[in-house]
Amino acid sequence: MLADALGRPLRFIVTAGQVGDITQAPALLDGQSGDAVLADKAYDSNALRAIIAGIGATAVIPSNRTRRIVIPHDADAYKQRNRIERCFYRLKHFRRFATRYDRRTANFTGFIHLAAAMIWMQ
């Protein structure tokens, strides 16, 4: 999921449970602009950092512990990453989202659109 600076959902891609989120990050960032992209350690890859630099933003991603050369990040800016967590928290207020009540991806995606629209209205 991609969220704005206020923690409102902008884009999302539903994947299978065993698929890593980093595989969808380039598609989420396609056509976006901004000053910085904040993400957690799971998104630490050179390829993603190159995509972020390509859109003219700064990658605020802590280095994974397996990285040999640690890439520094802005710790003060990283504190704002909690806004995506708040976005998921608001979405999980909808029981249908939290329990993945809909088994078909199309139905689940449709409900996410509805829930995201309701969050934007708050």
From TrEMBL:
Instruction: Give the source's domain of life in one word.
Output: Bacteria
Q: Give me any GO biological process, just one.
A: DNA transposition
Against InterPro entries, the record matches this protein to:
Transposase_11 (IPR002559)
UniProt domain Transposase IS4-like: residue ranges: 4-119
Q: Which GO terms describe its molecular function?
A: DNA binding; transposase activity
PANTHER family in alphabetical order = BLR1914 PROTEIN, PHP DOMAIN PROTEIN
Question: Which NCBIfam families does this one have?
Answer: transpos_IS5_3
Q: What is this protein called?
A: Transposase
Query: Which organism is this protein's natural source?
Result: Bradyrhizobium canariense
